[in-house]
């Protein structure tokens, strides 16, 4: 009853167009959902970016660079619809859009995630000043939603975002990674408390573009005795 009352008081808005959803229990209008580009084959075997040809195994980035994570899963292409949705989710207080993303990720990747048998989900952290301003870390909302559905612990404070990075655009790949690695650190306290259970983890983020954030966090985790790192992102760029 409380739920129906909440539905009347705060009707759910579509995570894509922002209008009130007419179908009860839905997180988005069916038409809007159809507009999104799901990640399908052919896709990169490593990062899951869509690629042009079935004959290729990896996208351009994964062919060129040696990323240290094992594999990544992503839901949609980061196009104009998703750009707006994610931006409202992150910057305009639409944290309930997280329900839609989590629901879709579970529908699509439940088995893949469970097959990894992860010991924990690790959201990519944001700087604490940003978290205070925004009221939440969007990646943490996603990780907690997925963790709750699948019974996987979430360690939101294992990685810490220390400082703002230099604008990445002016840097080359190597500088970019170095710049980013300096921006994150590992919490020895959280790591120590969970030492015996942490072998495989899945990083969770909203967008994967060049892969440098995931790579920086992976390297930090691998340096701290975690053996296997995977990632889940809601959106991903195209691999061509
Ligand atoms: Zn809509
Ligand atoms: Zn790739």
CATH architectural category of the largest domain: 3-Layer(aba) Sandwich
As for the CATH topology of the largest domain, it is: Rossmann fold
Portion in strands:
5-15%
Helix content: 40-55%
Hetero groups: zinc ion
Mean pLDDT: 92
Spatial strand arrangement across the major sheet: 1-6-5-2
Roughly how many Å is the radius of gyration?
18 Å
Low-confidence parts: none
Number of strands: 6
Taking the alpha carbons of the first and last residues, their distance comes to 49 Å
Oligomer: single chain
Dominant shape: globular
What count of domains describes the coordinates? 2
At the first level of CATH, the class of the largest domain is: Alpha Beta
**H-E string:** HHHEHHEHHEHEHEHE
Largest sheet: 4 strands, parallel
Please identify the structural class as seen in this structure.
Answer: alpha/beta
Summed up, the helix count is: 10
Label this structure with key terms.
240 residues, alpha/beta, Rossmann fold, 2 domains, four-stranded parallel sheet, two-stranded antiparallel ribbon, 10 helices, 6 strands, 15% strand, binds zinc ion
